[in-house]
Structure formats: structure tokens, C-alpha cells
Design brief:
Elements lengths: L1 H11 L7 E4 L11 H9 L8 H8 L6 H8 L2 E4 L2 E4 L3 H6 L1 H5 L7 E10 L10 H7 E9 L6 H4 L1 H7 L1
Parallel strand pairs: 1-4, 4-5
Antiparallel strand pairs: 2-3
Helix pairs in contact: 3-4
């Protein structure tokens, strides 16, 4: 989602961007394959959560990858009344179709680094034309042994590339 926002901004305001990184996402429309994650976060009964370990355990059924759960749980904050999400889940829910949609047209001539998860199907060879139509200085790196959630699964390698 962040990579799409960055690409959209760079294409809409190229004079305001020097370079950017897109983590395992292309400027194309995607099927809503992470809908179950948003649903799991919305359905989590935060009144039953006394600590992050409780939340992790409750999310295990819907989200099987430990690193992904840990990444998502960074958005859980403790308040005087218990726990709540930092994320605006209703806004994400209302705008999920737009978030999954294609990035606008335009061209960005600065460098962009696409980082692909080695086991992910988010960056495909058929996306190359959509990428090259919009971006003229493309570099691609692959982090082997990661899914779409590469920054959560191998954060040290990801941070080194960025």
C-alpha cells in the first residue's frame, strides 16, 4: 500500500520527489487478496486483549505467518481503556478497492528501486510494461525466501537495500 502511495505521489508531483522505493508492488490493479487480513483486524475483539501476545494468539487462525502478525501488531496501541488500533480500519475498509487499483498515468524520471519478495507473485514479468511506461530509471532487487511481506520477514536485508 505504501509503495502505491509513493508511486502515485511521484507521478502526480515529480518535481517534489528525488527517488523512491516500492516494496513488492507494481503500479497495476490487484485482486483484493489481503481482504482476509483487514477482516481479521476488524473482527479482533480488543476487549479480550490484555497484551500483544493475546492479540497474536487471536490473529493466528486468520493470519498464519508470524512475521506478518508481528508487523501488524505494531499498529496496536495500549491506552488507559485497553488496546486500540493506530490504523483507521474503517477508512481502509471503505477505500480498499481504490487502494487495490492501478496507479495513475504519468512519468517519473528519478530513480526507483523495486524490491521483490522472492516467493511473492506481486511483481510479475507482465507488469514490466506498466512500470517502464511510468518510470525511466528502474532498478529491481529480490529478497529470496520472502513473500509479499518482505519487510516484516527479513527486515535487516530490506533495510540494507533501502
Amino acid at each position: 500500500m505504501g509503495g502505491k502511495v509513493a508511486m502515485e505521489f511521484a507521478l502526480s508531483h515529480p518535481q517534489r520527489v528525488i527517488s523512491l522505493v516500492a516494496a513488492d508492488v507494481a503500479p497495476v490493479a490487484y485482486d483484493p487478496k489481503h481482504r482476509h487480513i483487514l477482516d481479521a483486524l476488524e473482527q479482533l475483539d480488543l476487549t479480550k486483549v490484555e497484551n500483544r501476545k493475546d492479540a497474536d494468539k487471536l490473529l493466528q487462525k486468520a493470519i498464519d505467518t508470524h512475521g506478518v502478525r508481528q508487523f501488524l501488531l505494531k499498529n496496536l496501541k495500549h491506552t488507559d481503556n485497553g488496546y486500540e488500533w493506530r490504523l483507521n480500519l474503517p477508512a481502509l475498509d471503505d477505500n480498499y478497492a481504490a487502494i487495490s487499483g492501478a496507479v495513475c498515468e504519468g512519468q517519473f524520471d528519478g530513480p526507483i528501486l523495486f524490491i521483490k519478495g522472492g516467493d511473492s507473485d506481486y511483481l510479475k514479468p507482465e507488469h514490466e510494461s506498466a512500470i517502464r511506461d511510468r518510470f525511466t530509471q528502474v532498478d529491481v532487487k529480490i529478497i529470496e525466501g520472502t513473500s509479499h511481506w518482505l519487510h516484516a520477514e527479513k527486515p535487516r536485508i530490506f533495510n540494507r537495500l533501502v
